[in-house]
Write a structure and sequence with these properties.
Blueprint: H1 2-15, H2 25-33, H3 38-65, H4 70-78, E1 82-84, H5 101-107, E2 116-118, H6 122-134
Antiparallel strand pairs: 1-2
């Protein structure tokens, strides 16, 4: 449960538009003077949360890999989740489409069939998140290499 909750929080923080918060010169100076200053806490809270999530995962995941039961690791990290995509919001293309009643009568039960979508496993998402964090402007890369509003920049040089 700990791995799932921490992973979910990490995924949520990475997709948050306010992560990473740009640190100002005043925020850096006040954090050097007083570690309890309110300005520094607001600026760095999301970054600290991401770092804390990574710290917890870096200590828990090795213990999971060392468990003698391989089904536990398989079930926790590598099992793909299947969700019902028919309950999700309709696409913009199909939202305002009005079907004829004759077409629905011919298709019959096919209109009521469920569409299932397979999501990536937790381990796949953790690996993708780790790679994105390696190339995150303002977190591991300087903010000056950011292009537009894209905070993930996969260029090295």
């Amino acid at each position: 449960m700990l791995v799932k909750v921490v992973s979910a929080r990490l995924f949520q923080l990475l997709s948050d538009h306010s992560f990473p918060a740009p640190q100002t010169v005043v925020g850096r100076a006040s954090s050097l003077i007083s570690p309890i200053s309110p300005g520094a806490a607001i600026v760095d809270s999301k970054t600290k949360e991401v770092l804390n999530c990574l710290r917890v995962l870096s200590r828990v995941l090795p213990a999971i890999f060392e468990v003698e039961v391989p089904e536990f690791e398989e079930q926790l990290l590598w099992t793909r989740e299947v969700v019902d995509a028919s309950n999700q919001a309709p696409d913009a293309d199909t939202q305002f489409v009005i079907d004829d009643e004759d077409d629905e009568a011919e298709v019959g039960g096919a209109a009521q069939s469920r569409v299932q979508e397979t999501l990536p496993s937790c381990a796949e998402r953790l690996i993708a998140t780790a790679v994105d964090l390696l190339f995150c402007c303002g977190f591991t890369l300087p903010i000056k290499v950011q292009v537009g509003h894209q905070k993930i920049n996969h260029t090295i040089w």
